[in-house]
């Protein structure tokens, strides 16, 4: 038992050593950055947006103009007005997000935090800055940059209160269930009206009438038994009786009288 414990302890030590060496050998590939430079670049975005919204006519382009730019205009705007430091499409989508956020913030911001929560990975630097609206609502601005601090994405988020979250959840539930019941009612109506809808089409496609069965021929009547009337053939009967009597007399040698024969039926051919 003591040997088993020693072996188990040895194996555990080896595993810990291997894991430690693996951790030490890992290379940190996240982008290195300067906090002050990254924070300053992110905060400058809000200043530019505020200037465009308040002094758009003076600078020569308003927020509506920028939101209506196509891809080519955004590239030109990126190089001429943004110095290539902010991607044109990111600036446009961020401006739209900022305008929508201001509606929830009471029309303006009362405070922009001087500190930022910064993280980085192999390709991007993410900066989160807390903001406060004129009505006291809280939110944050999220800015994504490259290793050269070029801004590639801008999003403004408004923090919702617990009541607003419950209200939105209830609204989504009602809309979802309402849509489901409406669809079920529509399907039931369609099924109920299906015979009425299909009836006109059935009338135009009548099935061809089946040919009437050929009449079964009546059985031929059985031939009536014909009773021959022998009253008019008495002479013939007498002749036949006499011939038979003569034949019998000659054959037997005994005289046979024709009266001994009775002709019951006479058939003509």
Structure commentary:
By secondary structure, the protein is of the alpha+beta class. Among the domains are: 29-164; 233-260. 53% of the residues lie in helices and 12% in strands. It has 7 helices and 5 strands; from the N terminus they run H-H-H-H-H-E-E-E-E-E-H-H. Strands 1, 2, 3, 4 and 5 form a 5-stranded antiparallel sheet that branches. The N and C termini lie far apart (133 Å). The model has no long low-confidence stretch (mean pLDDT 80).
Beta fraction: 5-15%
Coarse structural class: alpha+beta
Characterize the main sheet: 5 strands, antiparallel
> What is the string of helix and strand elements?
HHHHHEEEEEHH
Percent of residues in helices: 40-55%
pLDDT under 50 segments (min length 5)? none
Write a brief caption for the model.
It contains seven helices and five strands; from the N terminus they run H-H-H-H-H-E-E-E-E-E-H-H. The chain is of the alpha+beta class and about 270 residues long. Strands 1, 2, 3, 4 and 5 form a five-stranded antiparallel β-sheet that branches.
Which features characterize this protein?
269 residues; alpha+beta; 7 helices; 5 strands; elongated
